[in-house]
Amino acid sequence: MTWLPRTVFTAEHDLFRAEVRKFYEREIVPHHAQWEKDGVVPRSAWKKAGDAGFLCATMPEEYGGAGVDRLYSAILMEEQARANTSGPGWSLHSDIVAPYILNYGTEEQKKKYLPAMAKGDVIGAIAMTEPGTGSDLQGVRTTAIRDGDHYVINGQKTFITNGQNADLVILVTKTDPKQGAKGISLILVEAGMPGFTKGRNLEKLGMHAQDTSELFFSDVRVPVSNLLGDKEGQGFYQLMKELAWERLQVAISAIANAEAALQWTVDYTKERKAFGQPIADFQNTRFKLADLKTQIQAARAFVDRCLELVVKGELDAASGAMAKYWCSDLQNSVLNECLQLHGGYGFMWEYPITRAYADARVQKIYAGTNEIMKELISRTL
Ligand SMILES: Cc1cc2nc3c(=O)[nH]c(=O)nc-3n(C[C@H](O)[C@H](O)[C@H](O)COP(=O)(O)OP(=O)(O)OC[C@H]3O[C@@H](n4cnc5c(N)ncnc54)[C@H](O)[C@@H]3O)c2cc1C
Prior knowledge:
Elements: H1 11-38, H2 43-51, H3 70-82, H4 90-104, H5 107-119, E1 124-127, E2 143-147, E3 150-160, E4 168-174, E5 184-190, E6 196-201, E7 213-223, H6 235-241, H7 243-271, E8 273-274, E9 277-278, H8 283-311, H9 317-341, H10 352-360, H11 370-378
Parallel strand pairs: 1-4
Antiparallel strand pairs: 2-3, 3-7, 4-5, 6-7, 8-9
Bound molecules: flavin-adenine dinucleotide.
The site of flavin-adenine dinucleotide has 20 residues, from strand 1, strand 3 and helix 11.
């Protein structure tokens, strides 16, 4: 299928993409159906990604990364979406968790965690959401109360990506429970600390190979040196800093997955016959697919422009929010139409369109719901 040529990537990026694509075809696609049954991606796959240099690639070389730009991260996300393998929580680990440690961690924290994360030896998670609060982050109730040289942590988190595998959790806590945003602090908590337990690996509509979990904290004593940043109460502002990039990540995978789904559907409709002709020949099919292709192309141009800005560190929060909501909505509508064109086969789990349809639904919910995105955009009117 032809698309407008993309101008954001160099020849080096293209070589990297070819390598990533081969890796997905060889190491991920053949195992993904089993991992969906297991509800988790095994640590051995994380290690392979680490060995290949696909984890934390944008981190500086002194901390185990390759010091490359965020277009390399975008390529990893696009290839994962194209391969239709939603299990590995690598972008969250590499492009959300690791940057917090790089941006706010002490030298000691960076040396301890980042090289191990780049190798796939330490798996990262970030825990904001609680059973009682998601969108309204200021309402978190997990507390970290200072007691001498330690914080004592109590609370509960849910829906945490990489929750079962996690060795290191960036935990959103209230160090001052009387305050709202100003009382929030980010604290590094390691798996195995007494009082930290992992709860259920949650059963979900889609993304079956992702270990989305509950986490529990009961009188967990953490040294005060595990605070991320130099003083308490900075957590909310720290969480805001990279939001535009974090939200663009959803848009990047949404468009790549929609493109892939369109290709599967073109192929399927050319093969499948009804009333003596390929269903691709019905005007309804051709017009539907033409419409979807046009919408994907327009979205791709917007996301590529956002990518250019992200590399320069200039993407603003509202544009990141627009990309997140608009592209995840588009992904869902593309998959819905493509599924329809597969007829009954589109309802069968063995077909990629079915899995993609189930996996895509959450893109409108996590990383800030699409309603919250519109709230943010409306503030810039
Ligand atoms: C698969 C998966 C993975 C996830 N991974 C993580 C993770 O790794 N770490 C983490 O911390 N969280 C994670 N989450 C949680 C996710 O970020 C939250 O579910 C999301 O932010 C929404 O919060 P909520 O579920 O509490 O919904 P609520 O905030 O209760 O929202 C319910 C509905 O109300 C709407 N609403 C809320 N406030 C407003 C408003 N002001 N105006 C208009 N409408 C509003 C919402 O848009 C939504 O439609 C994950 C969730 C899922 C499903």
